[in-house]
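Lecture notes, continued. The same structure-token format from the folding unit now serves as the input rather than the output. Read the line below as a description of shape only.
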């Protein structure tokens, strides 16, 4: 069972009573919370004490958002090689803090540890978000992902099952698509929770007969950036409302799609999001790297943590009237972008239009950047493909390829998911180099 401290109860109270009146009010709350968290980390977490000392900064100096931005930024490589005792608060036994490993999309995973109370608070926020979608506790949920061993708290889950609450079935994302579809027909979920690209591929496989049994009210996607055209296949295939959820193991819930506008609502009550372009805060409509602070993570703090994602800043408040910061677009991981021979980068989904909109016989595809000037496109068809099909794809997609990149199209029987369970429509040069060396780049 989760053990709540006074600090955790305070966090719970913040979640339950959060109702800012202005964006300025949110920033004032963030300054206060970061000052508290930084003071805690300086006193009890060796990594942050060393980091702050090297920068000559003391948490007590935080008074404004400019002061917050003076705090050093941490990255995943900064934490990956450190022993647990360096990143977990003193007085806590890391073995008492069950961890989840990140997907390792940068080549190496990171174990993220949270206390039972922290998990309970984040789970409460998660279920409150589900409720905002119009869902209830008795609806059948099926999640498609890697099947993990359950974390502590199984007594609570058993109690839920006894009363038919929050029923959750799990389907292994590594299973063949036909098996996943068959399992969905058996579970008949009201809510499907699935990685974005996998949801798009499954949606393309569903037949009218499948849809007699698979009739969800909501498809909740997460985990990957996919082309907008590909995302459109999800609602079309499942014939259900789709909502994209933006989260990470380190920061937990970050943002969720607005029900009325094109933007994502940032969970300002639990995460402080900063976006930087060329070393300065990005303005509305600008793209930059996301730096986040998990405001409720005391056991293993993440303060001004750069997760490696590129996002586009939206307006604040949201045009729908919600008092929150917004993200207009989640434009992929930094390492997913294609480096161009003449400098600069481009995201692959800017060249996927023909694959999704026009060439509907393409069931699955994957871009792999084999070299600075070479791009491989693997395609899987819903019928047996011939060389003339590959030639057509090369011609249509080649018209959109930036100058200096050579495109090669390869027909494949199947494109399997990575060992992490995710389908990656794009494999960047950095990942390809790891792959070529026999390492798992995904």
């Amino acid at each position: 069972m989760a053990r709540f401290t006074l600090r955790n109860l305070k966090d719970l109270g913040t979640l339950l009573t959060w109702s800012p009146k202005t964006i300025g009010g949110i920033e004032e709350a963030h300054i206060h919370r970061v000052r508290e968290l930084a003071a805690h980390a300086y006193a009890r977490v060796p990594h942050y004490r060393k980091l702050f000392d090297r920068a000559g900064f003391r948490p007590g100096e935080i008074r404004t958002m400019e002061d917050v931005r003076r705090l050093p930024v941490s990255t995943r490589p900064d934490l990956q090689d450190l022993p647990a005792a360096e990143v977990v608060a003193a007085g806590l036994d890391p073995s008492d803090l069950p961890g989840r490993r990140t997907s390792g999309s940068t080549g190496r995973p990171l174990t993220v540890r949270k206390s039972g109370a922290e998990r309970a608070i984040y789970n409460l926020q998660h279920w409150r978000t589900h409720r905002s979608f119009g869902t209830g506790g008795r609806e059948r949920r099926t999640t498609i992902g890697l099947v993990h061993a359950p974390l502590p708290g199984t007594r609570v889950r058993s109690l839920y099952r006894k009363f038919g609450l929050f029923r959750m079935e799990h389907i292994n994302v590594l299973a063949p698509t036909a098996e996943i579809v068959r399992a969905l027909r058996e579970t008949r979920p009201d809510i499907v929770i699935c990685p974005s690209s996998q949801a798009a591929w499954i949606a393309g496989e569903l037949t009218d007969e499948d849809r007699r049994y698979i009739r969800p009210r909501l498809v909740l996607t997460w985990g990957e950036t996919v082309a907008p055209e590909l995302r459109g296949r999800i609602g079309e295939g499942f014939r259900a409302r789709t909502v994209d959820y933006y989260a990470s193991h380190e920061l937990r819930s970050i943002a969720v799609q607005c029900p009325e506008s094109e933007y994502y609502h940032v969970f300002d009550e639990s995460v402080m999001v900063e976006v930087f372009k060329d070393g300065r805060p990005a303005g509305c409509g600008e793209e930059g790297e996301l730096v986040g602070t998990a405001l409720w993570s005391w056991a293993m703090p993440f303060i001004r943590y750069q997760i490696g994602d590129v996002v586009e800043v939206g307006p604040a408040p949201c045009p729908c009237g919600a008092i929150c910061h917004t993200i207009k677009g989640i434009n992929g991981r930094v390492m997913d972008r294609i480096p161009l021979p003449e400098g600069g980068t481009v995201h692959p989904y800017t060249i996927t239009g023909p694959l999704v909109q026009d060439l509907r016989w393409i069931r699955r595809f994957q871009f792999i950047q084999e070299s600075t000037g070479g791009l491989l496109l693997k395609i899987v068809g819903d019928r047996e493909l011939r060389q003339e099909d590959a030639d057509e794809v090369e011609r249509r997609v080649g018209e959109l390829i930036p100058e200096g990149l050579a495109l090669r199209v390869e027909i494949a029987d199947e494109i399997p998911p990575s060992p992490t369970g995710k389908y990656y429509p794009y494999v960047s040069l950095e990942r390809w180099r790891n792959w070529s060396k026999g390492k798992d780049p995904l």
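Point for the exam: The CA atoms of residues 29 and 386 lie 60 Å apart.
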